[in-house]
Design goal:
- The protein is of the alpha/beta class.
- It has a domain of about 220 residues: Rossmann fold (3-Layer(aba) Sandwich), CATH 3.40.50.
- Helix content is about 30%, strand content about 15%.
- The protein is built from ten helices and seven strands.
- Strands 3-2-1-4-5-7-6 form a seven-stranded mixed sheet, with helices on both faces.
- Strand 1, helix 1 and strand 2 form a beta-alpha-beta unit.
- The longest helix is centred in the C-terminal third of the chain and has 16 residues.
- The chain is globular and about 60 Å long.
- The two termini are about 25 Å apart.
Length: about 325
Amino acid sequence: MKIASLFAGCGGLDLGLKNAGHELVYAHDIDKDCVDTYRNYFGDHIVHGDIKELYGESLPKIDLVTGGFPCQGFSIANIHRSKEDERNELYIHLCRIIREALPTFFLAENVPGILNLAGGEVAKIIDAEFESIGKNQGHPGYDVKRTLLNAVNYNVPQNRKRVLWIGISNEIEEEKRELFWDNFPPPKQRGVEPGYEKLLTIKDAIDDLPEPSAKGAEVILNHDYTKHKVKINGYMGNRKMPWDKPSPTIVGRGGGTGGPVIPVHPNEHRRLSVRETARIQTFPDDFEFFGSVSSQYRQIGNAVAVNFAKALGKVFKKFEDGKLEVKSTFQKELNI
């Protein structure tokens, strides 16, 4: 499928979708560091600008619009979140562009904190907004579903829950739409081998990386780290990180000191490096991040985990190729 990526960030979602066999034809973000990072890895199809000034009619022909609309106003990491936070209105522009472009599919992503914002009212408003797209312009609208998934179940060494809204144009016949929903969410994909049910751990992700100060470590891209003091006290960013468990969620938001909250390395002597957080987000080692170290951490923390995005992308690819399977009620209940 041809994809237009809004609020593209550094490109975690896009890389996963590309790895699943899709074509990235347009991307857009307001953050210059994100755009520099994205352009360096993917190419010149990304535009640096304000989403409020983008119009769907100007997009190339696309099949899928994606949008990980900014989540700072919604996250439980932000104790000042509220329905009135102006950042929470940016999904309106995502809806507008989908309404103007009318792709076959759309995929929107956000943090789980959005589900209980204003007692669940905000999520319901977003549901209704997505479901109304196209209905007042001679279009049959979209079949929309919302789901909550954890990236740890998709070969990501990190507990990272995300809310997804998937929309399928009602121009697609009902039988085909139902077949898609039979296969979505994708089945859990744990471990490094088929049938291997072990969750990936921090050790699996970063144990082979040398200390940033070690001889030769300078050749590893972005293997730098914040010198923020380590203080194990049980609070977010200052908790012990066992080698044999998945990482807690890598975040892009600050802790009141101006920079992102970076977990402590399992050795408890320093914070994770940028490259180590990128590994936990399943970015490849040749993916280079631009901007300050703080900006690099933020880009990674705000990204969709690459392997998780790939798992989502495989369902869209199988739909496109006509290879989705009809599942029994038993299979759907077990998510297999």
